[in-house]
Design brief:
The radius of gyration is 17 Å and the shape is elongated. The chain is an all-alpha fold and 104 residues long. Helix content is 83%, strand content 0%. Helix 1 runs parallel beside helix 4. The chain has one domain.
Length: 104
């Protein structure tokens, strides 16, 4: 019973930390990347509109997620590293959702 309760608590804490990290990264990247100088927009910039912003968004997001993975996996006990990998794998499709929210 104790093991099951610890697992539920670990999942709840993981979900809270995951959501906090995702929201913080999303809002910081949106406020940093999305505003553009009107002169740069008028000049045309890249072949694909917002291409540079999308690439920076992906690179910074992946850097933060991999950094969080490395820090979290070194801090949690060995038995809970599977939970850390679960949240890491969940963050990969979440990247697509955040990209659609940010650039639509």
């Amino acid at each position: 019973m104790e093991k099951k309760q610890n697992t539920v608590m670990a999942l709840a804490m993981g979900a809270l930390i995951f959501l906090t990290l995702e929201v913080a990264v999303y809002y910081s990247l949106v406020t940093w990347l999305i505003p553009t100088d009107p002169e740069v927009e008028a000049a045309g910039g890249s072949i694909v509109r917002n291409w540079n912003k999308v690439m920076y968004f992906i690179l910074v997001y992946m850097g933060v997620v991999v950094g969080a993975l490395l820090i979290a996996s070194s801090q949690v006990p060995r038995g809970y590293r599977g939970h850390v990998m679960f949240w890491f794998y969940l963050s990969l499709p979440m990247l697509l959702v955040l990209l659609m929210l940010a650039f639509s």
